[in-house]
Amino acid sequence: MDKIYHIGTVGQPWGAPEKAQWLAEQDIKRSFFSEVLPEIEALADQFTLVKYGKLDYEAVCGKTYPLYAVKSRDWQSFKPTILVTGGVHGYETSGVHGALRFLQTKASHYSPHFNIVVIPCISPWGYETINRWNPDAIDPNRSFGQDGKAIEALEAKQYLQSLDTDFALHIDLHETTDSDNSEFRPAKAAQDGKVNHNWNIPDGYYTVDDSEHPSPALQKAIIDAVAQVTHIAEADENGRLIGEPIQQPGVINYAKASLGLCGSVTNAPLVSTTEVYPDSPSATPEQCIQAQVAAVCGALDYLLSLG
């Protein structure tokens, strides 16, 4: 079903007035400072916390958000380096809390084998406003390319480059929600001066491989691990998930570098974007968090199996 967004005029891309109207409608719905930051700070006994930047949104909401990465302490040059990112889209709750839960419960098991870097919440303003975009109406997950403009993406990218290391694997934790069809995709279409054409929201978990550098065996390992926790999304009547053809059960492909996605931020040969469905009647918020943890662990176990 097509949906006309309430801001803008069909056929005319947004200008400054439309973006200002959109921003004026955003408000704080939950707290990064009470729900996320204390969880990060509590990890200081086990890990190295790195404040790699900040988001000065004082003029927007009266807040400045610290940006943190969490690193394993026994960092050694001979070990493979792996990256886990969450909250690129701040509204995707289990991405943030799945990254934190991995650190809290599983990372120490893998740290003898890997150098681990986790950025749990790339977009804290998006977390608080339950938003896909940043205050400039820019999608951080389309801003990791050379022409990216979202400060959230640029800060994370600069930090990761400063590590001066080759990454073996990157897992980027996401969700697909009913609000993608009801709010975020219609807003994006309106911003572009177009009409949104909704796709079917998959009921279940799936992953997005990189069509430019596919790693199908990694995706299968992740799907197999997550299937122990929650159900895997099945293809729609057209054999697709979110409009994309199925590559294998629970897996579709996107061109990550071409789209400026977070999954292209490193030189890792193994990359996966996870997608859980928190609005499913068959999944709880806790299952969604556990599914994200299972995805990371399944990926790391696969990497270990390569020897």
From TrEMBL:
Q: What does the similarity note say?
A: Belongs to the peptidase M14 family.
Q: Does the keyword Methyltransferase apply?
A: no
Where in the numbering of this chain does the Peptidase M14 domain appear?
29-307
Q: Name one GO molecular function term.
A: hydrolase activity, acting on ester bonds
Q: What is the organism field in this record?
A: Rheinheimera salexigens
* Name used for this protein in its record: Peptidase
Q: Which cofactor does it need?
A: Zn(2+)
State if Membrane is listed as a keyword. Answer: no
Identify the InterPro entries for this entry.
AstE_AspA_cat, Peptidase_M14
